[in-house]
User: Fold this.
Amino acid sequence: MLKKIISISIVLLIISIMPSSFAWGGLMAMDADRRNVEHGEIITYEGYLYGEVPIAGEIISITVSEKKTKNIVLEINTFPDSKSVEYFENTAWPFTFQVGTSYKEFAKEMTYVVEAKYDNKSTKLEFFIQPEPEQTCLEILGNNPVLVLTDKEKYSQGDIINVFGCLSKEAFTKGINIRVYDPEGNIIGTSSLVPNSDRTFSEEFIINEKFGLNGTYIAEVDAGGLYSSTKSFVVPEFGSIAIIIFGIATSAVLIKMRFITSSSDLK
Assistant:
């Protein structure tokens, strides 16, 4: 009986003095060289295990998931670098990956969570994929001499249309002309202006009764009579609806006036 008690005590003692073989008791941390990235950029992570010597052969599992949906888009395993053990038994585990080009699952303007797990411990960091910067007019211009744009593709009565664009070096002049054509080819708006020193220009027109036809309108920019460009936009039918509503209202008023006149005559 005594031998049995001693054997059990020895087993319990061994278990109590070797907890690290079942659960690692240290701490882990992670940092990155950037938290906002664009597609194609590389993020470099540095992680540390400290407080205890790493468990032999234990891997560090890393997952990258979209924050809102929690969908995992990347899974990687790495091992602690035993050569980089520093003071206080800190052990480094570097982790690097490229966003966008190698992993098409990543979407712009989304936040992702990088989580590293080692035995029973974990640490997290987030990064955000920035939207692509908008191209300037001169970047879009390319080899074209003139580029004209509108701030919208479709307008309603009362809207203000902004006609803007830019000129190449050869088309850059002291004055340009902007003309607006209705669906039948009639000129319904004109403007002459001096382009800015950066070769850009901008002008506004009010969508009024001149834009009464339903259909596609054209904004044309002419630079010195040598170079020109056009941009189309749509104004939905407005005039006919307004005429119908006005006609109904007018008819109602006339009927009411006739009724009042007839009643007066009866008296």
